[in-house]
Amino acid sequence: MAMTFEEAEALLTPAQRDALARCALEDAPLPSPLSEAQRVFCFGLSVLCEYEQRDEIFRYLL
């Protein structure tokens, strides 16, 4: 069964979400390796960036 963005978000710590959100906002390289939850979360962040909803990403910053 595929993991949803919300499920991935729930599995990550605030610090993990913050680090990945900063990578998305700054177009920085992602850490490696990524867990499945981190990959799904990053994909969701990339969709937000693609559709110019970067403001939504700021809620994940500490």
Automatic annotation (TrEMBL):
This is Uncharacterized protein. It comes from Ruthenibacterium lactatiformans.
